[in-house]
Amino acid sequence: MTDDARDRPVRVEQDLAEPGYRRGVIALLGVLAYGELVGFLTIAQEAGFASSSQDKVTLAKVATQEFAHYERLATRIEELGADPHQTMAPFTRAVDDWHRRATPADWVEALMKVYAGNSIANDFYREVSELVDPETRRLTREALEDAGQVEFAAGELRRAIAADDKVAGRLALFGRRLIGEALSQAQRVAAENDDLMGLLVDTGSGYGLDLRDWMHMFTRLTDAHTARMEALGLSA
Amino acid sequence: MTDDARDRPVRVEQDLAEPGYRRGVIALLGVLAYGELVGFLTIAQEAGFASSSQDKVTLAKVATQEFAHYERLATRIEELGADPHQTMAPFTRAVDDWHRRATPADWVEALMKVYAGNSIANDFYREVSELVDPETRRLTREALEDAGQVEFAAGELRRAIAADDKVAGRLALFGRRLIGEALSQAQRVAAENDDLMGLLVDTGSGYGLDLRDWMHMFTRLTDAHTARMEALGLSA
Fold first, then answer.
1. Is A10 an 8 Å CB contact of chain B?
2. Touching check for B70 and chain A: CB below 8 Å?
3. Which of A57, A223, B40, B129 is 20 to 30 A from A230, alpha carbon to alpha carbon?
């Protein structure tokens, strides 16, 4: 829970009977679901850069976990009476764009995307999960489960940075692109989608963050990213 | 069971105590395991060509199933006292080469690879599974499970061929590359690996196919491929 939001009202399961809140939750599950689906595809693609079968297996495990999350989210969307594919449709462009603009050029960049990119997404969803009812929160948090991939990536990145001076500068640059594109796409998604915006930002409902808290959240995401980059000895 | 091999002795579980047979089974599980691992990675990559989220999900399901097979094969290799990664190592080049040479250029070629490529591999493993003990056979057959992807791919291919005259010629060409590369890599793998060759081809053990049956098997694989291409109205 953030300081800013501690005294705000919290959503409960009964709120799902409110059409606006329900649409907002379905939209949130939709963007999460498409993120997990494309996360699966891109991590599996990035595993193509791995030269050893051990590393391929490690990334394949991460990818299949993302797909399991997708399946649980899709099931929940159906339980709420919506079609998963229709629900994901408004978000495909922004998520695809983020992956296209943050495409790693090699194995260390792929590791950086796991280490920093996944972490930005996880921080975002952890913040958002504070704003929703307990069942939706549980499912959102489940989608954040980490099978140890961030730690794995951090270890590999430390080794790669220690082994080659030139790697640090390139990774610092790629890290900046990851956070920049992530914040830009997240804000675009929310701004373009009234259902999602209505869930996350209080525009009269009495729930969600006010606009100041919403901007503070992005500052926290940026701070956490900076700390992660510095933990590898990289300038953020 | 093939006609040629019907009267040949069949392997039993106790044979796993024989070092030569055991090494052969471990090698077979190794090439199967690496095939499933890379199958996972490439199907996930090919799903990138899918334009709809529905098709992405369909291919993601196929891919995760391949990875589940990989995990079961790796577990069995460990049960037999070997390291999965060391066991896969002699086969990585041939399997990687097959995928590199049979890389689909677009969505219809990706579908063709699922339809024809997976089927060639499945036919091969089904033949080979006749030569091994029941537990190894069970595991090999499990790795051949089809979640409906061949039927899915066939349906999509029929639609694509009907919609565009030029597609048929290109797919016929790609199909020929798939079978040619598959047979070439399969023969190379067996020829280069004494343990696997010892398991599959009888060179004095009294088990396995004799050389004539071995060649007949490749003829059957080619015939089955031809029939599959003709089922789509394509020249093989």
1. no
2. yes
3. A57
Domain A13-231: which CATH number of 3.20.20.10, 3.40.50.720, 3.30.70.330, 1.20.1260.10? 1.20.1260.10
Condensed to tens digits (0 to 9), the pLDDT of residues B89-141 reads 999 999 999 888 998 999 999 999 989 998 998 899 899 999 999 999 999 99
User: What's residue B7's pLDDT?
Assistant: 65
- Given an 8 Å threshold on Cβ–Cβ distance, is B40 in contact with A44? yes
Confidence of residue A57 (pLDDT cuts 50, 70, 90): very high
Domain limits of chain A? 13-231
The residues facing A201 across adjacent strands are: A209
Structure tokens at B22: 């055991």
Cβ distance of B41 and A60 shorter than 8 Å: yes
In the 8-state DSSP scheme, what is residue A14?
G
> Which CATH code of 3.40.50.300, 1.10.600.10, 1.20.1260.10, 3.40.190.10 fits the domain covering B14-231?
1.20.1260.10
Alpha-helical (H) ranges within chain A are 19-46, 53-79, 84-88, 92-101, 107-112, 118-129, 134-142, 149-163, 165-192, 194-200, 211-231
CB A106 within 8 A of CB A54: no
Q: Report d(CA A175, CA A148) in Å as an integer.
A: 20
Locate the chain B residue with the closest alpha carbon to A88.
Answer: B53
- What does the alpha-carbon distance between residue B59 and residue B113 come to, in Å, rounded to a whole number? 12
Q: Which of A32, A22, A14, A33 shows the shortest CA–CA distance to A127?
A: A32
Q: Contacts by B144-153 with C-beta closer than 8 Å and gap 24+?
A: B145/B65, B145/B69, B146/B118, B146/B122, B147/B61, B147/B62, B147/B65, B149/B58, B149/B59, B149/B61, B149/B62, B149/B114, B149/B118, B150/B114, B150/B115, B150/B118, B150/B119, B152/B58, B152/B114, B153/B111, B153/B112, B153/B114, B153/B115
At residue B209, the 3 state secondary structure works out as strand
Q: Do B85 and A47 touch (CB under 8 A)?
A: no
Q: For residue B228, give both structure tokens.
A: 């599959």
How far is it, in rounded angstroms, from Cα B138 to Cα B130?
10
B172 and chain A in contact, CB less than 8 A: no
The owner of tokens 């030269």 is A51
Q: Which among A53, A85, A89 has the least Cβ separation from residue B37?
A: A53
